[in-house]
């Protein structure tokens, strides 16, 4: 890996801090996706109750944006000189592929139970996490539908070690140009979709890995600015207010072409503000022990939740009909608890042990070079212990040890 440009003594690089708040925020993003799917599956038949779910989670699918931005941020933040590309790729595979393989097998078992047809070619694409490259309707959502995002992540992982040396050498002005340009490119995807066949436009804007990588690189560039001590953004309280205001406005009045871009910016501001709060040991509501545990299991929760809900609803005969009265919200709550239990088991008995068995250890971090202390450097110097960041989009993080792969993400 190539070293970054020198950082001035009064602006030290902020890389030696744990980021538990990002782990807690991962659960909020996973909950948004869960709520969106609970609403689109029409589990709640009572109009008044369903209106609440729709109002809260109508933009819940944008939680995947959070995962992609967070993945780029954490992987750049945690990258160490001396780490080989092969070792990086092995850790990424060890992180997400065991869970994917378990859900792949479980989905095929459910398909066999319900006598659903399975196209061998589509199944092979899904197994190899190549399905996001296939624009044919139904193919990119084949087998376990949510695994399309893992297909995108694999593309991001392939590219990052190749691009990181360039990112490390980039001048600050170029990084700030990218911070502005990437959201505009996300916006440009909407008029650009007119260049592809109408049947493939959803795939182009929402699934196609190079298009979705814009969010990943947005997080990556912000992390590089922050690690150099150059990031300028609002604090956590202000960033949260901006996000909530953007969410409400986007849900009520803003067209999809705009809210995808605006929410990407809002998510970035929350992620960087939460990371900065952890680095500087400032107050954050997102690093409580329960939220951190929920964030740790959020990757497994994301993978299991659609399969569990659709399978149970089909088995009970309630698929597409909904539950009347209070039973609708009760069923949604029951699904939430059931998916959390299964996610906890998957995280403990598959994800964690397989990461420890398959992932190579990370290179040791070099000892910090003493810097001249100034009033500003004292104010901005990290106050937390020198551990690694906790999360990225799929829940991947440092696999060098610790009690879990999340406590040390995607």
From TrEMBL:
<dbReference type="GO" id="GO:0016020">
    <property type="term" value="C:membrane"/>
</dbReference>
<dbReference type="Pfam" id="PF01757">
    <property type="entry name" value="Acyl_transf_3"/>
</dbReference>
<protein>
    <submittedName>
        <fullName>Peptidoglycan/LPS O-acetylase OafA/YrhL</fullName>
    </submittedName>
</protein>
<feature type="region of interest" description="Disordered">
    <location>
        <begin position="359"/>
        <end position="410"/>
    </location>
</feature>
<keyword id="KW-1133">Transmembrane helix</keyword>
<feature type="domain" description="Acyltransferase 3">
    <location>
        <begin position="21"/>
        <end position="347"/>
    </location>
</feature>
<dbReference type="InterPro" id="IPR050879">
    <property type="entry name" value="Acyltransferase_3"/>
</dbReference>
<keyword id="KW-0472">Membrane</keyword>
<feature type="transmembrane region" description="Helical">
    <location>
        <begin position="235"/>
        <end position="254"/>
    </location>
</feature>
<feature type="transmembrane region" description="Helical">
    <location>
        <begin position="51"/>
        <end position="76"/>
    </location>
</feature>
<feature type="transmembrane region" description="Helical">
    <location>
        <begin position="96"/>
        <end position="115"/>
    </location>
</feature>
<feature type="transmembrane region" description="Helical">
    <location>
        <begin position="203"/>
        <end position="223"/>
    </location>
</feature>
<feature type="transmembrane region" description="Helical">
    <location>
        <begin position="330"/>
        <end position="350"/>
    </location>
</feature>
<feature type="transmembrane region" description="Helical">
    <location>
        <begin position="174"/>
        <end position="191"/>
    </location>
</feature>
<keyword id="KW-0812">Transmembrane</keyword>
<feature type="transmembrane region" description="Helical">
    <location>
        <begin position="291"/>
        <end position="310"/>
    </location>
</feature>
<dbReference type="GO" id="GO:0009103">
    <property type="term" value="P:lipopolysaccharide biosynthetic process"/>
</dbReference>
<dbReference type="GO" id="GO:0016747">
    <property type="term" value="F:acyltransferase activity, transferring groups other than amino-acyl groups"/>
</dbReference>
<feature type="transmembrane region" description="Helical">
    <location>
        <begin position="146"/>
        <end position="167"/>
    </location>
</feature>
<feature type="transmembrane region" description="Helical">
    <location>
        <begin position="27"/>
        <end position="45"/>
    </location>
</feature>
<feature type="transmembrane region" description="Helical">
    <location>
        <begin position="260"/>
        <end position="279"/>
    </location>
</feature>
<dbReference type="InterPro" id="IPR002656">
    <property type="entry name" value="Acyl_transf_3_dom"/>
</dbReference>
């Amino acid at each position: 890996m190539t070293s970054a440009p020198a950082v001035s003594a009064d602006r030290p690089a902020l890389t030696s801090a744990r980021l538990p708040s990002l782990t807690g925020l991962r659960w909020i993003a996973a909950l948004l996706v869960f709520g969106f799917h609970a609403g689109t599956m029409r589990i709640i038949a009572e109009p008044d109750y369903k209106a609440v779910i729709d109002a809260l989670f109508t933009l819940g699918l944008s939680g995947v944006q959070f995962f992609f931005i967070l993945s780029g941020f954490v992987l750049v933040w945690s990258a160490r000189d001396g780490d080989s590309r092969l070792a990086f790729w092995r850790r990424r595979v060890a992180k997400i592929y065991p869970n994917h393989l378990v859900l792949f097998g479980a989905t095929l078992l459910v398909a066999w139970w319900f006598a659903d047809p399975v196209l061998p070619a589509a199944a092979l694409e899904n197994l190899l996490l190549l399905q996001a490259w296939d624009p044919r309707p139904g193919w990119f959502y084949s087998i376990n539908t949510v695994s399309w995002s893992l297909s995108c992540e694999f593309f991001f992982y392939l590219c990052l070690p190749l691009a990181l040396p360039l990112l490390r050498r980039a001048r600050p002005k170029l990084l700030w140009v990218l911070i502005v340009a990437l959201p505009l490119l996300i916006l440009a995807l909407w008029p650009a979709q007119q260049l592809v066949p109408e049947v493939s436009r959803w795939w182009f804007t929402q699934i196609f890995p190079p298009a979705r990588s814009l969010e990943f690189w947005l997080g990556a560039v912000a992390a590089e600015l922050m690690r150099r001590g150059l990031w300028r953004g609002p604090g956590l309280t202000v960033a949260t207010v901006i996000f909530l205001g953007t969410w409400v406005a986007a849900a009520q009045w803003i067209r999809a072409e705009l809210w995808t871009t605006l929410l990407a910016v809002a998510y970035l501001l929350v992620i960087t503000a939460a990371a900065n709060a952890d680095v500087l040991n400032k107050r954050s509501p997102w690093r409580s022990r329960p939220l951190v545990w929920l964030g740790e299991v959020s990757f497994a929760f994301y993978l299991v939740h659609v399969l569990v809900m659709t399978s149970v609803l089909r088995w009970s005969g309630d698929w597409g009909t909904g539950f009347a009265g209070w039973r609708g919200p009760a069923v949604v709550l029951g699904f939430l608890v059931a998916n959390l239990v299964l996610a906890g088991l998957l995280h403990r008995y598959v994800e964690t042990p397989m990461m420890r068995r398959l992932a190579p250890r990370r290179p040791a971090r070099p000892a910090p070079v003493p810097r001249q202390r100034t009033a500003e450097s004292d104010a901005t110097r990290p106050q937390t212990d020198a551990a690694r960041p906790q999360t990225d989009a799929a829940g991947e993080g440092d696999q060098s040890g610790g009690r879990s792969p999340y406590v040390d993400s995607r």
